[in-house]
Design goal:
13% strand; TIM Barrel; 11 helices; globular; alpha/beta
Length: 314
């Protein structure tokens, strides 16, 4: 199976995707529909989140393994240190390897239940994401990604400290980074310049999601600790209906994608929330996938896809 390192070093424009582990059977059907809608677009890789405190660990392992077995996609599995002993982490890493997954995203993780609560390491666990990177690399030939934060992580006291944490993760063996969801290309460029100057010269992917409602934008900023993008917030708040708000979010993502591609990013990383249509619209506008009138075979739709979503049990 190829590695994310290899995929990111290939020539041409690239994109990657993040999926969430389903919480119900209905969610699961939606996830697999999105997986199949995206599969024909040939993303560089796809990742599956882990859940706060490992709350969806077993389902994440099963979903990621199934993507590896039953699709042509390259899966990356999330792994968080929060709530786990080193012994448990070793077991989870081994479980991923057993289902054919050797590309991991190493995160310290948020406290379960309340992401803003005090972060407390497991008594037999790890304190920093850099330690998790080192643990993964010690257990086999894994490719490891890590998180990056344009406005610093909410728990970091300042930009300098946050930059040091990122450099520590790269020094521990991280192969690439993915940013928190971005609302401005300049935020990405400033982050890239900062961490590269500090010695972390690995591919850094900007994270994008078409934010299609004012309420969702406010919720994202609340959970992430990011500043509210005033212009986008005002435009979404003034939208007369849901369709208009969606168009604003998609247009913003397209404009930001154009700026990032012009800055020679290694790939665009899209947070999907297990939904395909808005992201496919952005990708088509950026000429990264075939359009409906491109002369290329049509993309699968919910009505024509031969795939039948089956259930994965936890």
């Amino acid at each position: 199976m190829p590695t994310v390192r290899e995929r990111l070093s290939a020539p041409g424009r690239k994109f990657s995707l993040e999926f969430m582990p389903p919480r119900s059977d209905d969610d699961e059907a939606g996830l697999w529909l999105a997986v199949r809608q995206f599969e024909g677009l040939r993303p560089a890789f796809v990742s599956v989140t882990y859940g706060a405190g490992g709350s969806h660990r077993d389902r994440t392992i099963r979903v990621t393994g199934r993507i590896a077995r039953e699709t042509t996609l390259l899966p990356v599995a999330h792994l968080t240190a929060v709530g786990h002993s080193v012994e448990e982490l070793r077991h989870v890493i081994g479980s991923y390897a057993a289902v054919g997954v050797h590309n991991l995203l190493a995160l310290r993780g948020d406290p379960p239940g309340d992401p803003t609560a005090d972060w407390v390491a497991h008594p037999q666990g790890l304190e920093y994401a850099s330690e998790l990177v080192a643990l993964i690399r010690s257990l086999g030939d894994f490719t490891v990604g890590v998180a990056a934060f344009p406005e610093k992580h909410p728990r970091s006291p300042d930009i300098e400290t946050d930059t040091k944490y990122y450099v520590d993760k790269v020094s521990a063996g991280a192969d690439y980074g993915i940013t928190q969801m971005l609302f401005s290309a300049d935020d990405y460029l400033n982050l890239r310049d900062r961490v590269t100057a500090a010695g972390a010269d690995v591919p850094l992917l900007p994270g994008i999601m078409p934010v299609t409602s004012f309420g969702r934008l406010m919720r994202i900023c609340e959970l992430s600790g990011q500043s509210v993008p005033v212009d986008l917030a005002e435009r979404l708040a003034a939208a007369p209906d849901a369709r208009s708000a969606r168009a604003i979010g998609v247009e913003h993502a397209i404009r930001m994608g154009e700026q990032l591609l012009a800055a020679d990013v290694p790939a665009l990383h899209f947070y999907t929330f297990n939904r395909a249509s808005a992201i496919i619209e952005v990708l088509r506008a950026l000429d990264m996938v075939p359009g409906p009138n491109s002369g290329t075979a049509a993309l699968p739709s919910p009505a024509t896809s031969s795939f039948t979503a089956s259930r994965v049990t936890t």
